[in-house]
Structure formats: C-alpha cells, structure tokens
Amino acid sequence: MSSEKKSEHHRIRKGPFILLSLFLLLWIAGVATGEPARVLEQAVQVCLSCIGIG
Amino acid sequence: MELVRKWVQVIFGLLTNANWAFPFTRSIYQGPLKVLCAPGLNCYSCPAATTYCPIGSLQNILGGIRISLANSQYFFGLSVIGGMGVLGAMFGRMICGWACPFGFIQELLHKIPSRKFFIPRPLNYGKYVMLLGVVILMPLVLVDEFGGSSPWFCKLICPAGTLEAGLPMLLLQPNLVNTIGLLFYNKLTILILIIVWSVIASRPFCRTICPLGGFYALLNRFRLVKLTLDSTRCTNCKACHHVCPMEVKFNENPDDPECISCMACMHRACKFEAISIEIGGIPLKSSSRAKGRAPREDAAAIH
Lengths: 54, 303
Prior knowledge:
The structure holds 2 protein chains of 2 kinds.
Chain A: H1 2-8, H2 15-32, H3 35-43
Chain B: H1 2-16, H2 22-25, H3 54-63, H4 65-70, H5 78-91, H6 94-98, H7 101-110, H8 126-141, H9 152-156, H10 159-172, H11 182-200, H12 204-208, H13 211-219, E1 225-229, H14 239-243, H15 264-269, E2 275-279, E3 282-283, H16 286-291, H17 295-302
Helix pairs in contact in B: 3-8, 5-13, 7-11, 8-13, 10-11
C-alpha cells in the first residue's frame, strides 16, 4: 500500500515554470518598450529581401 | 494518434495562414493579428500568413538595433524572444512535430516512395550555427553605411520563405519578376535541394538547418509538456528507435533535443507502456499504468 502511494507521488518539475516566468518577463519588457508596434510595422509589409527578391 | 497529429498540423497550418482572400487582394494580410507570433517557421511575407515569423522578426529587429538606439527606441527583440521562449518552455520541439507548416510539408514529401537515408548526427549541430551565427550575429555585425542590416537567414537560406512567400508573390505580382536576381536563384536552388532531401531523408531541414528548431531544441529538456520514460518498464528492445522520424533513441536519451513528441514511439512501438506523456512532472496516464506490473517485475516473477 505504502509503495503504491509512493509510486503515485510525482515530483513537479520546477524548470519549466522558471523558464516560463523568465520568458514571460522578457515578453512584458519588450511590450513595455513598444516593440510589438515595430514587429507589426515590419510584418504588414512584403519583405522582398526576406523572400529573396530584390 | 498519427491521424490526430496530422489534423492538428493541418489546423495550425490553416490558422497561421488564414488570409484566404489573397488571390483577390493580390497582397499580404495587413491586419492586427500579425502582432501574434507564429509557433512554427512560417514566413510573414506569405500572402496567406496571419501571424509574424519569429525568426524573420528577430533578425529585422537585431538588424535595425543601431538605428533604433539612435532614435532612442530600445528594441532588442525582447518581445520576440519572450514569445518564442514562452512557446518553447511549454512545448519545446513538440511545436515542430505538431504546429510547423514547413515540418508538415517535409513529412508529406517523405511519404513519396523512394530509397530512404539516415542523416549523420553531427549535421544536427548545423541549426545551432544558423541560430547563433546567421540569425543573431550576422544582423548585429554585418551592417551597411546607415547602420542597418538584413535578415540574412531569410535572404540567403530560408526555403520556407521561398516556397510560402517568394514563389506565390511572383505569381500574384508578376512585375516582381523584373527584380529577381542571384539571391532568388540561390534560394530556389536551396529549396529544390531541401525538397529532394526531404523525399529521401526524414525532416532534414528541421534537423540540420532550422534556427527556430535549434531554439526550441535548447529548451527541449526543460519543457512543460514532454514524453517520459519509465525505466522500470523499458526492456531496451529498441522498438522506439525504428519508428522515430528524428532518429532519436528514446530509451537511451528521453530528453534528446531532437524529440518532436510525435508520439510514434509511444503509440506505434512500445508494447510495455514505458513511454508516457507528462506535464510538469505529472504523467497523464499514471492511473492506467498503475494497474499493470512492470515487465521487469513480470520477468522476475517467472524466474
């Protein structure tokens, strides 16, 4: 019984949550500087050099 | 499960390329959805694209970093890296297997009957060279007289851009034909080589060149959702080796950076329920697995 309980107990990995928090902070910092507007400005234009033309 | 994965790939392909009005507008989508990060490699100059390509955006921001700073704009690509990182920390290379349109195209090409070849493992490091050298360093270092740079990976290499954007844009705007030159023919040659390579080898671009795959590969070990191995159930029969499209030896290295969590090993190979999916350390199939005994215990009981 005790060994069954032991096998059912799983250790939660902290790594993914630390990484998620870190990248979320980076994303928030980028958004705070107004970067999405810059990304959008690029993304709505045909980037000729991106596609190998021009 | 393979059928489910195919449908998910189709749905993600359609969602990231949902501008089906492009044959009439003859241009790319310019709406607000383009502020969203595409999970896979999907060129934002594709006429149907509704999201931005993280690799293209990152290069453009890094290439313009001097000009931005001169204008007191602190654009370092943090929102792009953050967006990619959040996706990578959650799913890692599972995105390659389930949500990348170019990965899906390579899988379809590999179904064409032909003699199949392995890819030498050292070539897998190529994608890290692309990420660090071509995507990050080249836009920072190779600048013109105005302090700006180019998205070098897109410009010189990316076959996804040629297939999804270059060729369709040439069809939609025939006047662009006058502007094509050596760069275009170089990229067209790379595309043709990748297509041929995809027929004879499994996902060659993902494994050897894709910088986005390289980024996700760095996070693969630490991702939230991943496949896990129960070593008490594994018999080392190596059945998982033979079904893996990425040539991962799952029983030897369950945290392999190449694992795209396609689940072929779990559903098509392993007969001992040694492979399961877990979220943050919690196996999803723990209750059903607890019912049976581990194969090693069975073997011990027989002897």
